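Our preliminary data section would be incomplete without showing what the modeling component actually yields. Below, a chain of 123 amino acids is followed by its predicted structure, encoded as tokens that our downstream tools consume directly.
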Amino acid sequence: MASTWVSFGELSGLIGMDMATVLCRMQGGVDIHIPKMVTPQSPLARYVGYTALRALASVYGGTNIIVPNHRKDEPKKHQVLLMLDAGMGARDIALELALTERYVRYVAACARPGIRQVSLFDF
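Predicted structure:
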């Protein structure tokens, strides 16, 4: 399922600046599934609260979203490579190291370049 990018401005307009900041720090940079039907016990409610989750569900219910990563730190390429070699998935690495899933995939692609397509000019 494709994910929808939600900017911080759009997110804060929908659920408020404080809850948007919390959600971005806790789940930023990875797919977040927004359920259609929410309850106070929904897993995301512990981060943003039931009221904010209802607002998210009213707009994005039944889809996956990606929000900005507000967990800035030094690049952790070496740690990413070690975790990939240990068999960890991109999502788990992103959450553990406070990175985006996209960055983890980028590091993986750079470390393990794919097969280059042969050019007609190579013959």
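Residues 3-66 form one domain. The chain has two domains: 3-66, 77-111. Preliminary results of this kind motivate Aim 1 of the renewal.
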